[in-house]
Amino acid sequence: MGLNTLLDTSSWVEYLRDTGSDVCTTVDRMIDEDKRMATTDVVIMELLCGAVTPERRQRIWALMNRCLMLPTRPLFDYEIAAELFTRCRQVGFTPANTNDLLIAAVAIGKEVPLLAADADFEKIAAVSSLSLASA
């Protein structure tokens, strides 16, 4: 059946906005082909923060319920995220969103590729074992 792919919030936003981007098309295809998708609590929180109507919240939950849940591991994933922040800073890059570091920590810890439409993950991957899925 293959590995799950962890979809970052940015991937879901591309899909929900139907941008037509490569990432949007990839998410569309993953859903149509019933591919193995994963999510984490941080992604769900970020998506729900953007859901301003009950209908949008319901749609987000319907999508998240299709995914394997990979919850953050208390303290352990946070420590990995902090280490990723330090590594990024050492090469002159300050991540704009520390939630991205936590999402990356989950992907690294579960050894699953991450699909994202956020270029910061390329920089995180350059200083870590984060595997990025191609769109």
The biggest beta sheet reads:
4 strands, parallel
Order of helical and strand elements: EHHEHHEHHEH
Radius of gyration: 14 Å
CATH fold title? Rossmann fold
Spatial shape: globular
The end-to-end span amounts to 19 Å
Description of the structure:
With 135 residues, the protein is α/β, with parallel strands linked by helices. It contains seven helices and four strands. Helix 1 packs across helix 2 and helix 5 packs across helix 6. The two termini are 19 Å apart. The relative contact order is 0.20. The model has no long low-confidence stretch (mean pLDDT 96).
In short:
The protein has 135 residues and is α/β, with parallel strands linked by helices. The protein has helices at residues 9-16, 22-32, 41-49, 54-64, 76-90, 98-110, 120-126; strands at 5-7, 37-39, 68-69, 114-115.
What's the structural blueprint in terms of helices and strands?
Blueprint: E1 5-7, H1 9-16, H2 22-32, E2 37-39, H3 41-49, H4 54-64, E3 68-69, H5 76-90, H6 98-110, E4 114-115, H7 120-126
Parallel strand pairs: 1-2, 1-4, 2-3
Helix pairs in contact: 1-2, 5-6
Features:
7 helices, alpha/beta, Rossmann fold, four-stranded parallel sheet, 135 residues
